[in-house]
Amino acid sequence: MTKLILIDGNAIMHRAYHAIPPFKTSKGTLVNAVYGFSSMLLNILNKEHPDFIAVSFDLKGPTFRHEEYKEYKATRVKAPDDFYEQIPMIRRVVEAFGIPIYEKEGFEADDVLGTLATQAEKSEDVYTYIVTGDMDAIQLVSEKTFVYTPVRGIAETITYDIPKVFAKYGLTPAQIPELKGLKGDSSDNIKGVNGVGDKTALILLQKYGTIDNIYRHIDEIEGKLKEKLSMDKDSAFQSLHLATIVRDVPVSLNLEACVSHAYDKEKIISLFQEFEFKSLIAKLTNFNNHSDRTRAEDSVEQQTLF
Question: Phi, psi at residue 136, to the nearest 5°?
Answer without folding.
Answer: -60, -30
